[in-house]
Amino acid sequence: MKKSYLLLIGLLMVSGFSFAQHSIARLWNEALLEAIRNDFARPTVHARNLFHTSAAMYDAWAAYDPSVATYFLGKQHGEYLFLFDGIALPEDLLAARQEAISYACYKLLRFRFRNSPGWEETFLYVENLMDSLGYDPGYISEDYKSGKPAALGNYIAASIIEFGLQDGSNEGGSYQNIEYESVNNPLILTNPGSQNIKEPNRWQPLAFETFIDQSGNEVPGGVPSFLGPEWGKVIPFSLKKGDLTVHQRDGMECWVYHDPGDPCYINPESNDLSYDYKWNFSLVVNWSAHLDPTDGVLWDISPGHMGNLDISKFPKTIAGLRDFYNKLEGGDPGLGYAMNPKTNQPYAPQIVPRGDYTRVLAEFWADGPDSETPPGHWFTILNYVNDHPLLEKKFQGEGEILDPLEWDVKSYFVLGGAMHDVAITAWGIKGYYDFIRPISAIRYMADKGQSSDENLPSYHPDGMPLIEGYIELVTDTDPLAGANGENVGKIKVLAWRGHDFIEDTTDMAGVGWILAENWWPYQRPSFVTPPFAGYVSGHSTFSRAAAKVLTLLTGDEYFPGGVGEFVAKKNDFLVFEEGPSMDVVLQWAKYTDASDQCSLSRIWGGIHPPVDDIPGRLIGEKVGEAAFQHARRYFENKVLGVPENTMAEEVSIYPNPAKAGHPLHIKMPANYPQLSISIRAVNGMLVYKENNKNTKDKEIVLDTPPLHPGVYIISIESDLSISAGMLMVE
Amino acid sequence: MRRVVLMVFSMLLSSVLYAQELFTDVTEAAGIAHYFQVFQGTFGGGAAVLDFNHDGHEDVFIAGGSGKNALYKNNRNGTFTNVIEEAGFSDLDTVVTQGAVCADVNKDGYTDIFITTIASVNNDQFTAATNFLFINDGNGKFVNKTKSYGLNEITFSTGAAFGDVNKDGFPDLFVGNYFNKFKGRLDDYNGVLTEGEQAPAADLIYINNNGGSFVESSEVYGMDHTGLGFGGIFTDYDNDGDLDLMVINDFGNRATPNLLYRNEYPEKAFTDVSTAMGFDIAMNAMGVGIGDYNLDGWMDYFITNISSSPFLENQGQGDIPFLEKTKQLGTSHPILYTAQGQGVPAISWGVNFFDYDNDMDLDLHIANGCLNPSILPNPNLLLENINGQFVLGGPSYGLSDPSIGRGSVTFDYDNDGDLDLLVVNQSQYRDPGYVVETQGVRLFRNETAGNNWLKVKLQGQTADKNGIGSRVEVYVNGNKLIREIDGGSSHESQNSTIAHFGLANATKADSLVVRWMGGGVQTLYEPEGNQLITVDQAVITGLDASPSLPSVTLYPNPVNHYLKMSVGGFRLAEEVHLEVYSFQGQLVDQLKVKREDIEDSTILWKAPHSLRPGIYFMKIYIGPEAILRRFIME
After folding, report:
1. Which of A526, B36, B394, B537, by CA, is between 20 and 30 Å from A156?
2. Measured distance CA(B221)–CA(B269) in Å, rounded
3. No. of H helices and E strands in chain A?
């Protein structure tokens, strides 16, 4: 074992990654990201894994610092109370924290990733990491009062595991849906068209293969069901009850935070009202015609010519989207920056074929199989920023430089909280609106025909809008007409031609005319479109929230040095076809430039129309801000208890420490009826309970029972929420 | 973003061990080499656990389909020897067997074997055949007594079950049939015919006539359904002390859904309560597991299916319909994932409730297997009961064999106190045209350790010899654990007839109660854990006379009307103070006793009539310190 340990260190140095440079939190964050890559591509599940692991690390760090508030330990979240008596401060603080963090992560990761397809690699990875750090993975005691940091780590993990089995994620049921059923039959990808989709405004599952059932029928096999339509019910980080709307749909209760309202629908009553639906989805077809580097279109993709959008000028209505996106040529109104403010030099131009830029974008931000998924991708960007020599690790860019562990622990905690809240918000919206994806909508419209001219063939009000040179009818002289003219009158589109034109990865499908019923998004054939509704875009929401967090955390809108970049190597970077035709360097000045670009990548990637995008960005901005401010309260030890609602933040109790038998005042932000108040000893035993208390002048006065001196947990519950906090009794 | 950095860890150090699997595949080491040879692509098979030579080491009979059957004798050293040839089963050589169930039908002290068949075969020609009853002669030989016992009806049979329906102490027999009769080829068969020879068949109930013969009595009992049956189970779902009958059917949506017959004992009659109890689910039912997963004293049922399998939670009181809770409980897995992460539709067959980790609650094993010959990997599942929810254990548990699984049984073959698993796997019927690895029957040794356990073997006298259908209850740490001795369940199979209980960290149980099917209750107080207790119906067992000191012994637990506390080992305070709390922590009763009023070091507390059944706590202020104990009100 000793030998391999040395070997390992040697190799890590060679690979530019060594323990000396990185905190223990970073090592475990990398382990988690690797575990995510070895797992199914599930953004919701992994946003939660990222948050819970980050919070576990934060608590294992914060438990040893009385001046900050722990997140789980000693707090109540939902109905789960994390019992904690505090812990004695060790002599070697750093060693204790490293040990506690390691055991917490080791145990949590092994539990959360035990069903991964790549579980063996993940288990080996964490086993090796423990070994190389000199920790015994066989140590399983959870008795943190023993003072052993490993036991604290185990206790934190065990508590989070138990908490996670009742937090609304249905982790115990392998995260499967309890109520949601898709209203549409699956689209079998080997067949053309939308296959008689019943509800063209609702999500349609995709069937990747078929199998023969016991009775010899061909039935769709392995149809991935909607991932996370009930995720709105998961216990969040900073989302507030005031942000929540509870809807009913198809007999299912849908929890929607930051409800953006309806997207655009096919309206059977009115062709006019269907306009935006057709505009949005036909735009996705038009943008897919940009995915050919040989079309002669060259773009300068440097920050000198791209980005620098002002969120206050984002469209606020669906009709407003028409001015924001360039439907036929692609791109947004961003004009870039005259100067890099860090160097006072202009950004160097970078001229590349549009078809390379768009394909690299679609691949870079695909975040599907074998990736760390969108929330994990932003952790890699955070790590990239953290590694940047020009970054000063000052919280919000002010005060002292934090040591690497504190910086990592805090930055993961904030970003994890934000990503978890985004998943809950975006997937709550996805589950409720259940909005269709481009592959189904485009093929649906194509199945109907064209909606531009009643006098032309194949007219139907729900059909494709014709655009000469982009979307046309197949005529009898068309090469697509078919041997017997069977395709005459169908819709053809100028688009990326799809996987039928790729035999191996050195081929390139290119752009050309294809039947719209065969239109494919620019994605891997194994992951044609992620298995959940489009509205709102998870990528847009995650990315905007993450960009906001990075901005607030570093106190700077700009990447260190005024530019962040990623190099996509010529004929190497693209996964399923040849390309890019030259090296393409993705560059961003501000964090929000990266997130805005990520949003557009999903349109070129063929899986989101504009109407999915902008609401996601606007929500992401809010969620990122709220998560950051919420996390800061823990760092500043200003947390009473659970952030379940506005109440929790503004409840104050006095006197605290309280005197047993004397009145206890609880001040509330507003008047609430029918509150129930309970006081528990730290071992969970109920010592006081009072139901149906009403506030008077935003205050409740309790006659406390004759409690023994010590620490208690006081919970204040309304029918909507619970807040809890520590109460000291003298 | 694509994979970056740090792969170095996993690439280089493959020598590092990770924690041991919970189950180890020991099939080859144990000397088991057997396939269920599937006949024309469909049907079968099962296995049954028995101790045919009475040596205290359980053996197993495994059906062989159109191939050889196997009787694996336990060699008491972790290995088995197939003794099918010398044991006298040659009459099975020309038939296609399905499953097996065992009971001592003539009560001579030796367990006999009943084997279902679908056909006899000559030159690939298909003729319907009888089932088989082999009587154990006590010397390692079995004798075919099918005809003399009146079981020689020609049927296309699948699953069977033993149970003492009329409580006369002799095991009766239910036989599930699929087709009325079948002609042609099974691999040509598509879908369901409702008429003629491929129509759904009637099932049979054979009443045991004093151990000498069986009399088919479905008419007497009012059982007149037909269905594409995969058998059924005897179980006391309504806790009224007799065995009811659950019948499971394939293609319930096109033929007959599942059926529940309530036993109207002492009348010789069944009442069909399928609809009233919410049991009439139309599905592709393949097998049933029985177990009280939520420790409420009522049996719950898991019925295997294609795609999602229903979990029926018993609502108690006997007449409230079952609640189907598979999605809520985490047992719905319509898509299984292979080791490579490929999603494949689940087809579930065998199922076993068992406490694999001895932590008191029942976990769930599901044996999955694709259809033949279009073979897709269909890994088995182990679902761990965590606070009443079934959490999928990963492939690291060692039970994810993707072969063509069918029946599955639990037993403690190595007598180490935890339950092992045997899964019957089919052979590949035809080359599917692509490479797919499948294995034969698998034996998985349970490697968990640490928690305490208790095994209970019943020896009936007036009741069934092995106690089939009897209830065994263990009270421990305020929990009531119940088991029914299995007479046939899972898919065409039968688990061990030895009841197994995990005791977690308790070194002994508060009490052990046997409710014999056929009358009588025996109670044993404070049985020590980590042992096999044989409860003989003829021997009266009673209170443990010498409670260990110093401790407060509460008895009887569960409580009916009163509770006694033996406090002999303590230096008592002037006044001993008792407080009784409900599970919610509410004070419901209290009692103060002066030291001089305590006789025989025993305090008697009478339970108020107002107390509802459930879990309570008693706080006993004996001296300066209080002692807290849990008990159960019945």
Report:
1. B394
2. 4
3. 16, 22
How many CB atoms are closer than 10 A to CB B132? 24
Distance separating alpha carbons of residues B401 and B408, to the nearest angstrom: 13
Q: Does residue B10 register a pLDDT over 60?
A: no
B579 beta partners? B590, B619
How does pLDDT run across A636-686, given as a tens digit for each residue? Answer: 988 765 433 334 456 777 777 788 778 888 887 666 767 788 887 766 677
Phi, psi of A248 (to 5 degrees): -115, 135
Look at B341 and A224 and tell me if their CB atoms are within 8 Å: no
Place of tokens 């898991």: B302
- Is residue B569 predicted with pLDDT exceeding 60? no
DSSP string, B380-415: -EEEEEETTEEEEP-GGGS----S-EEEEEEE-TT-
User: Using one digit for the tens of pLDDT, what is the confidence trace for A457-493?
Assistant: 999 999 999 999 999 999 999 999 999 999 999 999 9
Distance separating alpha carbons of residues A402 and B356, to the nearest angstrom? 49
Q: Do the chains contact at A127 and B387, CB–CB below 8 Å?
A: no
Mean pLDDT of A127-148: 95
Please give the Cα distance from B48 to B487 (Å, whole number). 10
Token pair for B193? 């015919």
From the centroid of its chain, how far is CA B91?
29
> How far is B57 from chain A, CA to nearest CA, in Å?
33
Q: Vertex A454, ends A450 and A460: CA angle to 5°? A: 40
State ipTM: 0.79
Which residue, among A121, A125, A686, would best test binding to B if mutated, counting the most B CBs under 10 Å from its CB?
A: A125
> Cβ–Cβ contacts within 10 Å for residue B520, how many?
14
pLDDT, one tens digit per residue, over B207-217 is: 999 999 999 99
Contact indicator for A101, A24 with CB cutoff of 8 Å: yes
Where is A408: in which H helix or E strand? Answer: helix A404-433
Cβ contacts of A575 on chain B, cutoff 8 Å: 2
Contact yes or no for B271/B247 (Cβ under 8 A): no
Q: Count residue pairs from A and B with Cβ separation < 8 A.
A: 142
- CA angle at A471 for the pair A465 and A473, rounded to the nearest 5°: 90
pLDDT digits 0-9 by tens, B303-349? 999 999 999 999 998 899 999 999 999 999 998 988 878 888 899 99
Q: What are the distances in angstroms from CA B298 to CA B322, B523, B630?
A: 11, 19, 20
pLDDT greater than 90 at residue B365: yes
**Average pLDDT in the A210-227 region?**
66
* Least Cα separation, residue A63 to chain B (angstroms): 27
Which residues of chain A are within 8 Å of residue B3 when distances are taken between CB atoms? 37, 370
**Quick count: other Cβ atoms within 10 Å of Cβ A496?**
31
Going by C-alpha positions, the residue among B468, B459, B478 that lies closest to residue B537 is: B459
State the average pLDDT over residues A214-232: 76
CA dist A446 and A143 (Å) reads 64
Does A364 contact B345 at a Cβ distance shorter than 8 Å?
no
Residue B408's contacts (CB-CB under 8 Å, 6 or more residues apart) are B47, B349, B350, B351, B352, B365, B367, B380, B421, B422, B423, B424, B490, B491, B493
DSSP B178-215: -BSS--S-GGG--S---SGGGSBEEPEEEEEETTTEEE
Q: Which residues of A26-61 are buried (b: 16+ CB within 10 A; e: fewer)?
A: bbbbbbbbbbbbbbbbbbbbbbbbbbbbbbbbbbbb
- Are residues B391 and A178, on separate chains, in Cβ contact within 8 Å? no
Q: How far is CA A375 from the centre of its chain?
A: 4
